Amino acid sequence: MIEDIELETLINEVYEYYGFDFGSYSRASLKRRVNRVMHLDGFTHFHEFLSRVRYDPEYYKRMVDEITVNVTEMFRDPSFYAVVRNEILPLLGTKPFIRLWHAGCSTGEEVYSMAIMLKEAGLLHKSLIYATDINSTVLETAKKGIFPLRMMKEYSENYRDAGGQEDFSNYYIANYGIAKFNEELAEKMVFSQHNLVSDTSFNEFDMILCRNVLIYFDNDLQKRVINLFDESLAVLGFLALGTKETIKYSVTPNKYKQLDKEKIWRKVK
Amino acid sequence: MEESKIISGCKVVIIGGSAGSLNALMQILPELPELKGFAIVIVVHRKSTDDQTLEELIALKSSVSVKPVEDKVPLLPGFVYVAPSNYHLLFEKNETLSLDISEKINYSRPSIDVSFESAAEIYGESLVGILLSGSNTDGTYGLKTIQAAGGTIVVQNPLAADMPFMPHNAILNTQPDFVLDNNEILKFISTINT
């Protein structure tokens, strides 16, 4: 493992050279990620790694892409999606137009999951799904809607556990180890780069999903990001976080009402 | 193996296990007296669908209190914490727990190695690591990091383990301070900080 002081040096240098602020990221995870990328790329000394990051913007970009965690899956936590399907979509469906924001969408598996549910509820045609991430490389993957074929068994089980009734394989075409999802699912998606640490609100939404992103931030940054979501959420809109994340330290408690046991809150005023 | 070394100044006991470890935990945890100045953190491999059941089982059977783990929950002495399934569990300097969904390690998330190493970084010599039954190699590297940081390492006697592979692998590749049966592990934890 690198030393704490080395990690702090890297954070400072990255901020100075590129303006990107990792200062409010959780240190335990960040340290593991930095170690991992150093190891992957064959650096044995921290100072060599640091000088490469400083002087090679292309390498800096690679480092950021590798440090940010991009593990995601379709219909992760099926019970969460079941609540969205059964309780939230019927409420959103009464609106003439539905705006959703997947913040920190990574390679887009959850965005396509949502599009499938919207389509099955007959709502996709009047929805717009904004999907953002700080990592431009993962957004390119997300736009294409191409995921590894070997994951489809697990995803179709998740889909069924989340209340899906259709034949899941109708949503993609399998070819050479990849599954390409139907383009009509992506028609209502808008992908763009957005940094939760430094960028501001850009629209008002009926539902914001940000699952397993806040775990990488410290308490102060979590509060700031939840405030950003609060500013971006319409009254009676929904905020969904990961199963082990909470808003309870960040917003006034009576402003949001939690649904069931899931990490979904409705903005009540 | 040193005889009857009583551990003092311990802040955290971290227990790792995989297949067969639930039996051992259920023999040990219900019998534990109040935890004197330290917390227990349990990292076991389990299916993502049976989240909560282990917490409920421990809460039901044992007198020590279980605190549910959410991101950034403070790690307080006197309580038992169980790593949630499908996340890696990490330790922060301000004595909180944080979570991470990055790639599986040793085909596992949570990975015992990841949590042991992270705990060793923060708690050093005030950490005790215990490795129980299982059928893969997760935990061995983690025990090494705990020992290197000055902590104490304990391995379940493979003869007492439902699945001896994991503790056996640890014994082959580390120098455990203690190799203990389940009732000895219970006694060992009970005397910490006394």
What layout of secondary structure does this protein have?
The complex is a heterodimer of chains A (269) and B (194).
Chain A: H1 4-18, H2 27-40, H3 46-55, H4 57-67, H5 78-92, E1 98-103, H6 109-120, E2 127-133, H7 136-144, E3 146-148, H8 152-161, E4 172-175, E5 178-181, H9 183-186, E6 189-193, E7 205-210, H10 219-232, E8 233-241, E9 256-258, E10 264-267
Parallel strand pairs in A: 1-2, 1-7, 2-6, 7-8
Antiparallel strand pairs in A: 3-5, 4-5, 8-10, 9-10
Helix pairs in contact in A: 1-3, 3-4, 5-8
Chain B: E1 12-17, H1 21-28, E2 39-44, H2 53-61, E3 65-67, E4 73-74, E5 79-82, E6 88-91, E7 96-100, H3 112-123, E8 127-131, H4 140-148, E9 152-156, H5 165-173, E10 178-180, H6 182-190
Parallel strand pairs in B: 1-2, 1-8, 2-5, 3-5, 8-9, 9-10
Antiparallel strand pairs in B: 4-7, 6-7
Helix pairs in contact in B: 1-6, 3-4
Describe the structure.
- The complex is a heterodimer of chains A (269) and B (194).
- Chain A has helices at residues 4-18, 27-40, 46-55, 57-67, 78-92, 109-120, 136-144, 152-161, 183-186, 219-232, and strands at residues 98-103, 127-133, 146-148, 172-175, 178-181, 189-193, 205-210, 233-241, 256-258, 264-267.
- The model of chain A has no long low-confidence stretch (mean pLDDT 95).
- Chain A is of the alpha/beta class and 269 residues long.
- The longest helix of chain A has 15 residues, at 4-18.
- The radius of gyration of chain A is 19 Å and the shape is globular.
- Chain A has two domains: 4-67, no CATH class; 78-267, Rossmann fold (3-Layer(aba) Sandwich).
- Chain A has ten helices and ten strands.
- In chain B, a hairpin with a 4-residue loop joins strand 6 (88-91) and strand 7 (96-100).
- Chain B has one domain: Methylesterase CheB, C-terminal domain (Rossmann fold, 3-Layer(aba) Sandwich).
- In chain B, the strands form two sheets. Chain B has a seven-stranded parallel beta sheet with strand order 3-5-2-1-8-9-10, with helices on both faces. In chain B, strands 4-7-6 form a three-stranded antiparallel beta sheet.
- Chain B has helices spanning 21-28, 53-61, 112-123, 140-148, 165-173, 182-190, and strands at residues 12-17, 39-44, 65-67, 73-74, 79-82, 88-91, 96-100, 127-131, 152-156, 178-180.
- Chain A binds chain B through residues 1, 26-29, 31-33, 69, 71, 212, 214-216, 218-219, 222, 242-246, and chain B through 51, 69-72, 84, 87, 90-93, 98-103, 114, 117-118, 121-122.
